[in-house]
Amino acid sequence: MTTTPISLPDGYSFRKLKSSDYENNYLETLKVLTTVGEIKQSEFEELICHWESLPDIYHPRVITNNSGLIVGTGMLFIERKAIHECGKVGHIEDISVFESEQGKKIGNFMVCSLAKIAKEKGCYKVILDCDVKNIGFYEKCGFKNSGIEMVQRFDK
Amino acid sequence: MTTTPISLPDGYSFRKLKSSDYENNYLETLKVLTTVGEIKQSEFEELICHWESLPDIYHPRVITNNSGLIVGTGMLFIERKAIHECGKVGHIEDISVFESEQGKKIGNFMVCSLAKIAKEKGCYKVILDCDVKNIGFYEKCGFKNSGIEMVQRFDK
Fold it and tell me: Can you tell me which residues the record assigns to a coiled coil (chains A, B) (predicted)?
């Protein structure tokens, strides 16, 4: 069962990220989530081109507001495994909502929509990692706590 | 900093998974971890071929014992992101050790080796999800708890 996304506000749209989105608030929206750093337009375009060259793996999506500005981000990537009869797992990453647009269920719509894509693509499950404080948000999107995330960071 | 892998027992080896490993205890080792189901040789070979066609993404590795039998499994896959200056994140998946070979630090060697590959490939971090009961194991491999795993499972 996926949780049906609730509606977006009038004029808002859910769509694929495009290489022409460099100056369309995508990176600014990601900055709400974490460190983005300096990314040149050519680097951005190369990255989108790379993601587009692997359409079974990378599913970058955005939500735009009624001015066409990106105000929500999300990535689904799909991993092919041996376990579960050569099953596929969807990984949801980099969910972020522009600060002035929070409270409009944009994050909920993004997460539910990415989970729906994962199901349509034949994944047996979709997973994500989050802070403890965001568990309630993801529960509303149909997720359950299932384990612990562990990390090892590398020095530059 | 990566944690240096401790040594494997004499005669044991760490290497890439090969399409000729279908009858070499790979799937049996994975079954220690979770449901594997029925996988035909042709399906297995197609999957390995798929992984090998994406060598920057999928890094499936095994540890063999002194009879050449697979006794440890692990996967590193590398995701390209926009955040962290178009950074890369390594995901460690499907760590499993054949039951009769447990207690020989095979899992530790696998995890440390995959983390080392992630660092060499330029990842800024490597992450994995685990059960609460395995936190201590992964701490010995140089990992720290950093969040919560959430899951949504789909009916077939």
Answer: none
CB-nearest partner of B130 from A47, A125, A147: A147
Q: Is residue B155 part of a domain?
A: no
Task: Give ipTM to 2 decimals.
Answer: 0.94
The stretches in chain B having pLDDT less than 50 are none
What does the pLDDT look like over A41-66, one tens digit per residue?
Answer: 999 999 999 999 999 999 999 999 99
User: Contacts from A85-88 at CB under 8 Å and sequence distance 24+?
Assistant: A85/B36, A85/B37, A85/B38, A85/B39, A86/B39, A86/B43, A86/B44, A86/B47, A87/A123, A87/A124, A88/A121, A88/A122, A88/A123, A88/A124
Structural domain includes residue A38: yes
Instruction: Examine residue A153 and state whether it is found in any structural domain, yes or no.
Output: no
Q: For residue A146, is it within any domain?
A: no
User: B77 to chain A: which residues are within 8 Å by CB?
Assistant: 79
Residue of A nearest to B121 (CA): A154
Looking up residue A93, the CATH number of its domain turns out to be 3.40.630.30
Determine the Cα–Cα distance for residues A93 and B91; give it in Å rounded to an integer.
12
Please report how many Cα atoms fall inside a 13 Å half-sphere around the Cα of residue A146, on the Cβ side: 17
B118-143 pLDDT per residue, tens: 999 999 999 999 999 999 999 999 99
Q: What is the pLDDT of residue B6?
A: 76
- Of B26, B129, B155, which has the smallest distance from its Cβ to A127's Cβ? B129
Enclosing domain of residue B62: 13-140
